[in-house]
Specification:
9 helices, 5-stranded parallel β-sheet, about 55% helix, alpha/beta, binds adenosine-5'-diphosphate
Length: about 220
């Protein structure tokens, strides 16, 4: 199974992406993590992108697309599935990743959309900031990341919807509930045989950052 995640910052891409990767035994490719690693190691690439990361801006398309091409080739070598977290963020990235993954026989078959509103994701990111100290989890930078999400990332969903691969989940609820629904939806679609899936402990997701209060939609 090849899944990509589209969601605003703070909706739970990292948490749910890790869960999907663990359950279906897939490599997880998270562009934000890869970029932050470069910054931490102060590689040439890391020095080139630090300013964009700190300011909540987007790193140039070529940089992330090259990085992901390498990771998708590695994923192909270990079985052919993946979970993509953090890319595409622009229409140009969507086209570029589609074309290169098509060349490898590795196009995504699910675009998982996690829906959460701005006030909830801001609350979560500020809660995480108190624990994790990410340079971009300040109020101003969060506002900028959200604005970019609405302007350039969210519209890509229409493109995946046309291709009939969007699965949309209400991510306003506690992480374990969202996780259960995500895994149920993907299990229905997946061609991963049951014996090749790994049981995961969903209760441990509750301690993920800023677990939301349980006043969410009971029908969801
Ligand atoms: P979040 O979704 O919470 O903003 P990420 O960890 O996915 O967090 O990304 C952190 C930062 O890394 C982004 O604000 C951006 O600067 C950079 N980044 C990650 N992925 C991309 C991408 N596909 N294109 C451009 N910049 C990216």
């Amino acid at each position: 199974m090849r899944v990509l995640l589209i969601a605003p910052p703070g909706a739970g891409k990292g948490t749910q992406g890790a869960l999907i990767a663990a359950h279906f035994v897939l490599p997880r490719i998270a562009t934000g993590d890869l970029l932050r690693e470069h910054v931490a190691r102060q590689t040439e690439l890391g020095r080139a992108v630090q300013q964009q990361l700190d300011g909540g801006g987007l790193v140039p398309d070529e940089i992330v697309v090259d990085m992901v091409l390498e990771a998708i080739m590695a994923a192909k070598a270990v079985g052919g599935g993946y979970v993509l977290d953090g890319i595409p963020r622009t229409m140009a990235q969507a086209r570029a990743t589609y074309l290169m993954s098509r060349g490898l026989g590795m196009t995504p078959n699910v675009a998982l959309h996690l829906r959460a509103d701005d006030s909830e994701v801001t609350r979560r990111l500020l809660a995480r900031a108190a624990i994790e100290r990410r340079s971009d989890d300040t109020e101003d930078v969060i506002r900028r990341r959200l604005a970019l999400y609405h302007e350039v990332t969210h519209p890509i969903l229409a493109w995946y919807a046309e291709r009939g691969i969007v699965v949309s989940v209400d991510a306003m609820r506690p992480a374990e509930q969202v996780g259960r629904e995500v895994l149920d939806a993907l299990e229905k679609l997946s061609q991963v045989p049951e014996q090749d899936r790994r049981p995961v402990d969903l209760t441990s997701l509750g301690i993920a950052f800023g677990a939301a209060p349980t006043d969410a939609d009971p029908t969801g």
